[in-house]
Here is the input.
Amino acid sequence: MVDVELDPPKQHEVLVRLHASGVCHSDQNAIDGTAATRCPAVLGHEGAGVVEAVGPGVTAVAAGDRVALSWLPACGACDECRRDLPHLCAAAFPAMEAGGLLDGTTRLSHDGRHVYHYSLLSTFAEHTVVPEASCIPIPADVPFDVAALVGCAITTGVCAAWRTARVAPGERVAVFGCGGVGLSAVMGAAAAGAAPIVAVDVSLERAQAAAEFGATAAVAWSGDADTTGAAVQDASGGGVDHAFEATGRPEAMRAAFLSVRPRGQAVLIGIPRADAELRVPARLIPRGERRVIGALYGSARPERDFGLILDAYRRGRLPLDRLISHRLPLERIEDAFGLLREGGARRAVLALGPEDAA
Ligand SMILES: [Zn+2]
Ligand SMILES: [Zn+2]
Here is the structure.
């Protein structure tokens, strides 16, 4: 833990007092080198807090507003945004990778040297400066820790079911990996009326616990893709329409593909290593019109979907708060990553203000 300098917000930027941040696998990928990341950086990209000040030109939020943060502020002007695919915005990703904000510069420094932003948000901190378009207002009765998770894991999983895959009532679903994203996919599929929903995890206990979120069957990872795929075929009564893969491991992706029925699709959410390759039996693709598709941020529009998700939570249709297994102060961030690496947490959330302590 160090104190770093944070410059005030510039044009279309917002200073946020953070109250909660989730600890996500993408942060771990940045730490262990699975994803190249500009350093030194303040990591964290799953946050919520209160707007403290706004820069010139900001109209979407004002000081005092409670906000959840989206790590994908679409520019609205690139080819992808114009094609109505703002979650694939061609401007946001290069800015993210460069480690600055949208204008390419950083607001963070330490001893006169640049410190970089992570995913435009840098939420492992008490304060952050973020793009205006990252700030999504939330209702007063939504806890900050739930809102923080909506910023990444929940939207990534729920909207993979709702938006990317468009799960319909009565469709069969499998979810590989029962961490925060996978359980969110289970919740999204259940809320959409899917049945059966087969949860798969290396830990049978974790797969069984997915019943709390709407799963109807549990399968333990057998040690190889082919037998696990066959076990899901059995557990689902002959294969699923949508097999969501939330681990990023090529073997689990293969198992997901092998678990779908004709016209079914493997929906790949987890981010694999840069050199990873996926092997699947090619013949099954034309024979049965099986598909492999990707889901990025659940193809979501944060300004629309954060509100829908939180409304479903408030009406008891998405048990989002059950995802939070641990609440820790910022000082214990290493413990939070330990839990993540051991698979010992659904989601650990850092409480970032004195009033947020568990
Ligand atoms: Zn994340
Ligand atoms: Zn764009």
